[in-house]
Design a protein that fits this description.
Length: 496
């Protein structure tokens, strides 16, 4: 009897030990511990979705395009005035534009490197302060030499401001990027129109110096509004600052009345940030080289068109079948003396109408991005621009010229916007700002060459000046078609 009881007792103890060993396994097979789950910034951004934060982001960061557009378009409006005040020849007027783009080119790569190493927010904010300060100083320039130096400093600041596109892109969910990013051209159009309206109202009464002073106002306002925009969460995790990234994502989720994915934010820190070797590595070498040329042509054609339209109107070089009295007067430069023809009201109106072309085809652009993708969209836009550039040589009415200018402005503006989108999507977070910086620097080389075609060669022959723009568009269309990566619907890469 005693032996039987001992045997039962031993069996019970062994059975209890087996149950204790199986319980942890059962627990693992059951509900998963939420503390063991992890999520990435990409998953958090997609889970949070679109909401009030993104509306605020769209309005504030979109307004950076107003600042950039005003600083660049200012050159087209102020060129006739400084030509007259300082008795400038054509090449000297073109040199003003070239110096602005030189400052942009030099600081483009630098701002991209700093944004990848030290954060997007700091670079964009510093760009605002820098460009506003030197733009204000430009209005007090005592001579032509001081004017071009100060404008080159403005270009350096605008290079930092342009990194705002990267900061904005990194917060937007993938399915909303094809819609929200093209809509940013609305702000560029507003900036272009604002500087033209300022020129129309202020220059004839107070002069070009007061126009520049008033144009600084949007930059000053944005400096104070920029505190509502956080640092990029993607940058923070790449720099190892996971707690700051999580705090930013929690703030966005609260504003959007959404929640983060279950678990904890976890992404590896990347040591190699802001390295040019990533851009020229085997994964991105072909893409980078083709993109650099695409940016060169985008800037070359866009600013070439802006300056060409200004030059055609100022010097009355248009071949129109219904000219008014003003268009029968030609700009001349005899014996070193400047014979000025300032913009007339009709010229300002033509420039304003052409600015509307910036957004006229945005719905079509959104459709093309979603249906055809980025590569094919850029290819078709460049081919269309090439045809439109050559059509500018045809004699037509003033209305016909305005309509053609409107269409061409739409095409080159849409292309520039798609190039921006593709660049921000194709590169990984660790080199996205540097990639954008290199691209914008190559684009400013095109911007530096454009004034000498549009403002110097135009005086010799209109068709000779417009042909390089058309040829560049055709070659670039082929390059865009050969891009190896399509980014439509693809998540933003965190590392290479």
């Amino acid at each position: 009897m005693g032996d039987v009881m001992k045997t039962q007792l031993v069996s019970a103890i062994q059975l209890q030990e087996v149950e204790l060993q199986e319980k942890p396994a059962d627990k693992q097979q059951g509900s998963k511990d939420p503390h063991d789950e992890t999520f990435s910034v990409e998953e958090a951004v997609e889970t949070i979705g679109f909401g009030r934060f993104h509306i605020l982001l769209f309005l504030i960061m979109g307004s950076t395009n107003i600042v950039e557009a005003m600083e660049i378009m200012l050159l087209a409006v102020v060129s006739p005035e400084i030509r007259c005040e300082w008795h400038l020849q054509d090449w000297q007027v073109a040199l003003v534009s070239m110096m602005v783009f030189l400052g942009f080119m030099v600081c483009g790569v630098l701002s991209g490197y700093l944004a990848d190493r030290y954060g997007r927010w700091k670079v964009v904010f510093g760009g605002f302060v820098w460009s506003a300060y030197f733009s204000l100083l430009t209005s007090f320039a005592p001579s032509y030499g001081w004017f071009i130096f100060l404008r080159s400093m403005v270009g350096c600041g605008v290079a930092g401001v342009s990194q705002g596109f990267v900061l904005k892109t990194e917060f937007i969910p993938a399915r909303y990027r094809p819609v929200l990013l093209p809509l940013a051209t609305i702000f560029w159009m507003l900036g272009s129109m604002l500087i033209i309206i300022l020129g129309m109202l202020v220059v004839p009464t107070l002069g070009w110096r007061w126009m520049i002073r008033l144009s600084v106002t949007p930059s000053i306002i944005l400096i104070f509004l920029f505190k509502f925009i956080p640092e990029s969460a993607r940058y923070d995790v790449s720099a190892g600052n996971v707690s700051a990234a999580l705090e930013t994502l929690q703030r966005i989720a609260k504003m959007n009345r959404a929640s983060l994915p279950p678990g904890r934010l976890e992404e590896p820190m990347v040591q190699q940030r802001g390295s040019w070797r990533i851009l020229l590595g085997s994964s991105f070498r072909t893409t980078s080289l083709l993109l650099w040329f695409s940016w060169f042509v985008a800037s070359f054609t866009y600013y070439g068109l802006v300056l060409s339209s200004s030059e055609l109107l100022e010097k009355n070089l248009l071949c129109v079948t219904d000219p008014d009295r003003d268009h029968l007067v030609k700009h001349q430069n005899q014996d070193g003396l400047c014979h000025c023809i300032s913009f007339q009201l009709r010229d300002y109106q033509t420039l304003l109408i052409s600015c509307l072309g910036e957004v006229a085809l945005v719905p079509l652009n959104i459709c093309l991005l979603n249906v055809l993708g980025r590569k094919m969209c850029m290819t078709l836009l460049q081919l269309g621009a090439a045809i439109a550039f050559m059509l500018l040589n045809i004699c037509t009415t003033m209305f016909g010229f305005t309509a053609l200018l409107f269409l061409l402005r739409s095409l080159v503006s849409m292309n520039f916007n798609v190039v921006y989108i593709y660049t921000a999507e194709v590169y990984p977070t660790v080199a996205r700002s540097l990639g954008m910086g290199f691209c914008t620097s190559f684009s400013r080389i095109g911007g530096m060459i454009a004034p000498f075609i549009a403002q110097v060669l135009m005086s010799q022959s209109v068709i000779l000046a417009l042909s390089p723009f058309a040829v560049a568009c055709v070659i670039c269309a082929l390059g865009n078609f050969l891009l190896p990566i399509e980014t439509r619907g693809r998540a933003l890469l965190q590392s290479s």
